[in-house]
Amino acid sequence: MTLAEDRLKALGEFIRSQRRLANLSLRQLARLAKVSNPYLSQVERGIYKPSAEVMKHIADALEISAENLYTRMGLLEGRAPAPRAGGGVEEAVRLDPRLSTDQKEALIRVYRSMTAGRAPRPRRHTSAPRTVRSKPPS
Amino acid sequence: MTLAEDRLKALGEFIRSQRRLANLSLRQLARLAKVSNPYLSQVERGIYKPSAEVMKHIADALEISAENLYTRMGLLEGRAPAPRAGGGVEEAVRLDPRLSTDQKEALIRVYRSMTAGRAPRPRRHTSAPRTVRSKPPS
DNA sequence: CTACTGCGCTAAGTCTACCAAGCGTGCGCT
DNA sequence: AGCGCACGCTTGGTAGACTTAGCGCAGTAG
Q1: Helical H runs in chain A?
Q2: How far apart are CA A104 and CA A93, in angstroms?
Q3: Does the beta-carbon distance from B66 to A77 stay under 8 Å?
Q4: A29 and A18 in contact (C-beta within 8 Å)?
Q5: Domain total for chain B?
Q6: Has residue B124 been placed in a domain?
Q7: Range of the domain at B72
């Protein structure tokens, strides 16, 4: 079943990229998603297949739709889910395949600055994660 | 977490009722859904919580939408999903809360007889299951 | 320099979703 | 009567989802 493994790996990479876009460290996201940080690490590297509950928790923490993750795992026939009413902008941006990572970050930053004053969604990162990471010797 | 347990039991009962409506025995459905029959038995009685994969297999075998089951388990925020294009009639009937079980059975029977000749979806039950079952001593 | 903190990862254990084998019952046959 | 088959359920066992403890590294502060 290499197909499932590919999907698993793709899901992990997707989660990791979304986490980075949201500017969260692995441990922060793990806390938000109510899982342990080593486990989330393996999930992101495609070693373990997360249960649907865990996927939902991760989706909620990342503020993306759970359908999105389910679809990636082939659990949902189909189609791209409609973005939600409220905070759909950020998700739409993050998911747009025609935007580069930098473009997404920029757009989101601008969007947040625009909506800064009004009805802010509570989302504190007390400390921004240190983004740098040296590659382990292959 | 009694909430989750209730949901689990409700899901099991729902699956069992849908299986009966589809006129399938436990073993038949287990075979269609690619799970073992004892396991399906426990799932229907709310003892075990099926994984999303299993839920999808069951949904496919019962010809209902996977979203439906996910939503029942609280894995999907949403509301009742729109029935699919082709073959949605039977599902719509089965899911209608305003119909009794007998009404559903009757309707489905009529519907099948009407659509009998044309493009039949492959669904063989070589033998109808014996529906009778005496209650075990409580 | 040492001490502290946060990062991601490895290692070892626990728990439970899922399976194969087998039991007891009820029905239809000869 | 007895045989055979299908029904649903109980019982161990295996594997993998998930946890807690701890490693090594990089940055910042005293």
Answers
A1: 2-21, 26-32, 37-44, 52-62, 66-72, 88-95, 101-114
A2: 6
A3: yes
A4: no
A5: 1
A6: no
A7: 2-85
- Which pLDDT does position A77 carry in this prediction? 78
CB contact under 8 A, B76 and A53: no
Residues contacting strand C at CB < 7 A? A 25-28, 37-38, 41-42, 44-45, 127, 129-130, 133; B 34-39, 48-51, 53-54, 130, 132, 134
More confident residue, A79 or B97: B97
- CA dist., res. A24 & res. A54, Å (int): 17
- Among B1, B19, B15, B4, residue whose Cα is nearest residue B73: B4
B11-56 per-position pLDDT tens digit: 999 999 999 988 899 999 999 999 999 999 999 999 999 999 999 9
Write the CATH number for A72. Answer: 1.10.260.40
Are residues B52 and A70, on separate chains, in Cβ contact within 8 Å?
A: yes
The tokens describing A43, both together, are 């999930």
Q: For residue range A4-36, list pLDDT tens digits in order.
A: 888 999 999 999 999 998 889 999 999 999 999
User: CB of B44 under 7 A from strand D?
Assistant: yes
